[in-house]
Write a structure and sequence with these properties.
Radius of gyration: 14 Å
Order of helices and strands: EEEEEEEEE
Shape: elongated
Distance between the termini: 24 Å
Number of strands: 9
């Protein structure tokens, strides 16, 4: 089952998540940079490797705004947000991946 679903070529809504550590506490993103990664589940090929946006750093909220090329192919994808703080990285979710499903559209 997908954590996030949208139709092929749709760019809304953005993918917004709260970065939480393994114990469930929110990770404060103040002073951090965030990248978004999306990989095709079937082929293993990287679809997206781009900057994400800090929405509310202290609350750990980030989002990724879809580009047209990101959503042009239906399929199942693994996604994650990679946070860099003081030259060190932590990835969310850190207990697996988000599953993104891009479904076929009718036209």
């Amino acid at each position: 089952m997908a954590d996030f679903t949208l139709k092929r070529n749709d760019r809304l809504p953005a993918l917004r998540v709260t970065c939480k550590q393994a114990d469930g506490t929110v990770f404060d993103l103040t002073g951090c940079t965030v990248a978004f990664h999306l990989r095709n589940q079937a082929t293993g090929s990287t679809k997206v490797n781009s900057a994400a946006t800090l929405v509310t750093a202290a609350s750990g909220i980030v989002e990724y705004q879809w580009a047209a090329i990101d959503v042009d192919t239906a399929g199942l994808y693994h996604a994650e947000f990679e946070v860099t703080q003081s030259g060190k990285t932590i990835t969310f979710p850190n207990n697996g991946h988000l599953v993104v499903e891009i479904t076929e559209d009718l036209v």
